[in-house]
Amino acid sequence: KNYYGGNWASFSFSGLLSWIKENQQKTDTNDECEDWRKLILENEEVICLSKKDKTIQHVEYFCFGDQDAAEDVEEAGALPKLPVFGASGAEGAAQELEEECPPMETTLPEVESQEPEKATGTEPASTMEGNDTEITSENESSRSTGLGESALELGKTEAAPSEISAQEPKKVTYSQIVREGRRFNIDLVSKLLYSRGLLIDLLIKSNVSRYAEFKNATRILAFREGKVEQVPCSRADVFNSRQLTMVEKRLLMKFLTFCLDYEQHPDEYQDYENSTFAEFLGTRKLTPSLQHFILHSIAMVSETDCGTLEGLQATKKFLQCLGRYGNTPFLFPLYGQGEIPQCFCRMCAVFGGIYCLRHSVQCLVVDKESGRCKAVVDHFGQRISANYFIVEDSYLPESVCTNVCYRQISRAVLITNQSVLNTDSEQQVSILTVPPVDLGKPAVCVIELCSSTMTCMKDTYLVHLTCPSTKTAREDLEPVVQKLFDLDTEKETENEELEKPRVLWAVYFNMRDSSGIHRNSYDGLPSNVYICSGPDSALGNDCAVKQAETIFQEMFPAEEFCPPAPNPEDIIYDEDEIAPEESEFSNSPETKPEPSTEESSSGGGDTVVKKDNED
């Protein structure tokens, strides 16, 4: 592929149009080297990898504006964005990264002093595993992570729009979308990060968070009786809510308090362990509106398939994530979810890793006697040997996947002219769960992003819809789109209060969900070849993190998974050891640290890195 992240990637608008065209055509890729088979020895066999990406199906896109008028329009220049680094130029990379992402201690005290009121009333961040850093006023200035800073930075960026009253949406044409196409960062997979989820903990522990910035999801929405309304979820939201009566406020707070330590009160739920969570809620004297909020907007679980214990666990997880970085449990990475894979690539590149784009692999070379994979052959006909091989599921040929049963995810991406729920602030990041119309069908998760997330141009919103597939993506999601949005750009609504947001552009597609497939389901897989899946349909990223750690521990059981990386400025290199090791890939000694290094550090001082001589 010519982009990072596979099905986790983000695209500009023109990049997404190219991706759509590529997946609609599904052309075969011709071998650039026809004689690569002569590299295979007599005692070896090959597993040819798939040259077609079959993970994306039923791609349909619609333009609700004058598409012909945009034929000769070209994209404007690129927005300033963090650079992506390959194998070379690591010294310049480290310097550029420091300029683009200044150390947290240089900005955090200023942010804290300017917006002290934003930090009051929020729960302090817990001690962060791996680097023994706690975000408190005492040590923030010296060792805070990017997550700690971005959480406070949000208060700074969100203060101004609240003073602006809601205005009539400006007319945006398709030509403008094309011209401003680089302002869009459109994710193929739509997810949010739980503030106390596995991915956030991993980003902090590994120091990868220094390459990313995040924005709080500002509100949780619900769709009930044909209307979108905001859900009160924190204590302050509950008591400030005008949509709940005083009795409902007390009932809701009592139930949420119970959910935080429900394990201590088994007598209250053990009689309903075999019931659904919806049935359990019906026994708690909660009003229908409260049951709806809890089921669909807090626990975010199925009304028919979710058991009582699963629902209580989901509610507790939601509540535990409140207050760490804001009034909702969720964070969203600026520039899109596709930034996360690139952040790990940046860290990898700084410490000597190589990531090759546009460099496909023809086959795996397997030793017939041992059954282990010995090498791969690339499309240049070059044989590359290694001890371990990690392959994404989509590259496996059909002969290996005959017993695999895949699920599908239905996805839609919309560009709209205004929010599904207008408020005084235009810069909102919202999550909305739309319950299924028919029992047995999945709920639809809707994530709406504003321009301050760096995913869309000004005066537009980027809306992601996701659900497990039952039919094609358009059949699954278009009924929800019609409920929430106006697809008729010519129609004028006299009553502005009843006017729905207008869809300017939309795409639907089905994506393969290969998560949860056991290794034994694949036929003839060598023991040292590990399979990783694409994105799953869940809102968070826990599945991907668990899978990555499992694969790593199987390969290196004695090693720590993603240990804290030293800061580049803290590393001292021995010039005598570095000089003989320089290669064509780098002109700088800063690419030399490898995973097999011995590190010693004292307190907050320098870290000495020495190359392992066993190589």
Describe what you observe in this structure.
With 615 residues, the protein is of the alpha+beta class. Among the domains are: 1-25 and 36-69 and 170-220 and 334-558, 2-Layer Sandwich (Guanine Nucleotide Dissociation Inhibitor, domain 2), CATH 3.30.519; 234-321, Guanine Nucleotide Dissociation Inhibitor, domain 1. It contains 17 helices and 22 strands. It has helices at 13-25, 90-100, 108-114, 116-119, 140-143, 146-159, 174-179, 198-206, 235-240, 246-260, 277-281, 288-298, 308-321, 339-350, 473-484, 542-555, 575-578; strands at 10-11, 44-48, 56-63, 186-187, 193-194, 214-216, 219-224, 227-230, 330-333, 361-367, 373-378, 383-385, 389-392, 407-416, 430-434, 444-449, 461-468, 503-513, 529-532, 571-572, 597-601, 607-611. The strands form six sheets. It has an eight-stranded mixed sheet with strand order 3-18-14-17-16-15-7-8, sandwiched between helices. Strands 2-10-11-12 form a four-stranded antiparallel sheet, with no helix packed on it. A three-stranded antiparallel sheet has the order 5-9-6. A hairpin with a 4-residue loop joins strand 11 and strand 12. Helix 3 (108-114) packs parallel to helix 6.
